[in-house]
Amino acid sequence: MRSLILFLLALPVIAGAQINRSAKELASEKIGEYVVNKLFKNQQYKSVSYGDIKPYGDKKSPIAWSIVHKFEIKEANDNAGKTANAAASYTSLFYLDEKMKVLRVETSSSY
Q1: Rounded to the nearest 5 degrees, what angle is found at the Cα of 36, between the Cα atoms of 44 and 86?
Q2: What is the pTM of this model?
Q3: Where are the alpha helices (DSSP H) in 1-111?
Q4: How far is CA 78 from CA 82, 85, 86, in A?
Q5: Which of 8, 51, 65, 81 has its CA 20 to 30 A from that of 22?
Q6: H or E stretch including 95?
Q7: pLDDT digits over 19-51, tens only?
């Protein structure tokens, strides 16, 4: 009986954690597509890490979520006929709407 009561009390917490995990996975897919297709075309993209997805404070804004993403872009440098790949690291704050579409991006190293 006790285990049933504990399970019923823990069920909303488990369900909420699963929803947040799914939202973060969807956001990471959308952000990856945005970086590859809009920001850095024809360059190699490597995801390093994603922060926690956080609700945006202003209810009047179309922005619903924000998430910090660290990634690397390999840029081809042509020096004296030799091609060398240099990786540039970026830390960006992505703002998303309710459907996880990227609305705005801010890049900085202080996030």
Answers
A1: 25
A2: 0.72
A3: 2-34
A4: 6, 9, 10
A5: 8
A6: strand 82-96
A7: 667 888 889 999 999 998 998 888 888 999 999
Q: How far apart are CA 26 and CA 89, in angstroms?
A: 23
**Cα dihedral 22→27→30→36 (10° resolution):** -120
- Longest distance between any two alpha carbons in the chain, whole Å: 76
Q: Give the contacts of 27 (CB within 8 A, at least 6 positions apart).
A: 50, 53, 65, 67, 94, 96, 100
Between CA 4 and CA 78 the distance in angstroms is 66
Q: Which residues contact 108 (CB under 8 A, 6 or more apart)?
A: 91, 92, 93
